[in-house]
Design brief:
Domain 2Fe-2S ferredoxin-type: 417-489
CATH class of the largest domain: Alpha Beta
Number of domains: 3
CATH architecture of the largest domain: Alpha-Beta Barrel
Radius of gyration: 41 Å
Distance between the termini: 93 Å
Bound molecules: FE2/S2 (inorganic) cluster
Protein name: 2-isopropylmalate synthase
Shape: elongated
Helix content: 25-40%
Strand order of the largest sheet: 1-2-3-4-5-6-7-8
Region (Disordered): 20-55, 570-604
Domain Pyruvate carboxyltransferase: 73-338
Number of strands: 13
Keywords: 2Fe-2S, Iron, Iron-sulfur, Metal-binding, Oxidoreductase
Mean pLDDT: 82
Oligomer: single chain
CATH topology of the largest domain: TIM Barrel
Number of helices: 19
Structural class: alpha/beta
CATH superfamily of the largest domain: Aldolase class I
Amino acid sequence: MERATYDWNRGDEAACAAESARTGEAEARGTGARGTGVRGAGARGTGVRGAGVREAGENGEGWGLAWRPPQSVRVVDETLRDGLQNASGVNPPIGHKIDLLHAMAAIGVDAVSVGLPGAGVRHTEHSRALCREIRSARLPLLATAAARTVAADVEGIVRAADESGLPIEVYSFIGSSPIRHFAEGWDLDFMVRAIERAAAAARRGNLKFCLVTEDTTRAHPEVLRVLFRAAVEGGAERLCLCDTTGHVTPYGVAELIAFVRREVAAMGAEGLQLDWHAHHDRGLSLPTALWAASLGVERVHGTALGVGERVGNTCLELLVDNLGRLGARPRVPRERLAEYCALGARALSWVIPPDHPIAGVRYRQEQEGDRGYRVLAEEAAEEAPEEALVPMTLHLVERSGAARSGGNAAGQAGQAGQVGGSRVALAVPARRTLLEALRYDLDLVGTKQGCDKGDCGACTVLLDGVPVLACLTLALEADGRAVQTVETLAGAPHLDPLLDCFDRLGGGQCGFCTPGMLMSATALLDRNQRPSREEIKRALSGNLCRCTGYTKIIEAVDLAARIKRGEADEEAGVDLPGADCAPPPLPSNASRARKERTEKEQAS
Ligand code: FES
Ligand code: FES
């Protein structure tokens, strides 16, 4: 037996250099890229670094890996052990675990971890129940169980195997990185003795033994060599190499596996099999698992949905799917994989992400032809469920303009007033706002859609003569009532004085607020022919203007009031550009039917 020779006080660079010299490599190879392994006293600074696997440089130099598709590899499902160590801390009912066990068998999982019986009574009971289920249901699953490198833990697995009548492989783990040794105060002698005792306990129980070197990718090669030798001499059938912190790239995987193969060959244990167990901290767990498979490890590990410690493990369903596509395993139908995901999510109290490539709701809908990842607006409109339409009528009031010389089209001296209008029948969904009905059903786009939430007043219209915010009024509230919009104000040649004065005095710039201003002012002048400046301001206080400022607007309303009262004839009557252009007619059902007919004819 090779005993501890690693000098804990020697920096990792020195250890790597020694390793390089031994293997004849130009540069240090082995295990552990730059990581968080504790450096011993005497090493530079206080930083921590691991030892061993050298990563490719920032610029990618040193990669040069040749990908070979994996030939054949077995899959170990760690959901019921590592998966349960995720942050949710859920230990599901045994029924959920058993359902998942069957789903594992259905997707061709080869081996399953039935847990860590040493973790407590409930874990022991569940591990035994799972073993009994595998046996009684004749599931084609090899049972494995985790144990600390402690004889008592291994003996617990032996008892579970005896009780269930099912052989269980012992996966006995020991921390192998410098930081773990530092934290635990371990030395190599202690670790070697622990491995010897654990392996002996497995031997006594006639169970196969696997040494799991936790954090292998950040361990020192000299430490690994000693631990591996202890395992080999203890009768281990396999070694499990772990990227516990999700640390390496495929390059590191290749270096590590090459190192381990060399070491076990040197020990005369070429037949020793290897497992690969990885975490997802860098998002590389699936690629590294595939690389490990390509490099010939016999088993790769994963968990349902990749759920596990911290950010999780290799996603098992994706691993199975990808290995199937690479020809290393039989293809598994997606429905089975999706069922496995669903049962895994249930057991782990986990939510399947909507974009999960196999079981996500978006993916499934895409596959089932229901809906694409992105729904185009027109598709959404086509697919929108039919909404019941409610018939209603709007009475669009038409107003008269002021005659330039003391009379208007209605024959009222100086006054603009209601002179008729049109009744429009339409049908709207119950949730349609009056603003939407005016703009999008009747094409009365003079009423502006500003904030659409009652802040700006741009949508102001008159309902039975009272100003309302059309964006906050349901269309059905206007059923059978008189509606006035900016289009109902009189146009040329008897222009409504308000329109005239806003134009004359520069009461609008961009004009976006102007329709709302005009309607608020119309309501004011209809009820108060002689408003004060203060009353005008108060009447317009709900209408925001972002560019003109309010002085010109107030002056325009004041002048319009005077014109309407016949007190400012001399200021009115100037020909305006476009004064002889009559505005378009208000909508009516007859005109709408005509328009639709014309459109149809043009389309055909
Ligand atoms: S759009 Fe109605 S208040 Fe702004
Ligand atoms: S004129 Fe532009 S917002 Fe009032």
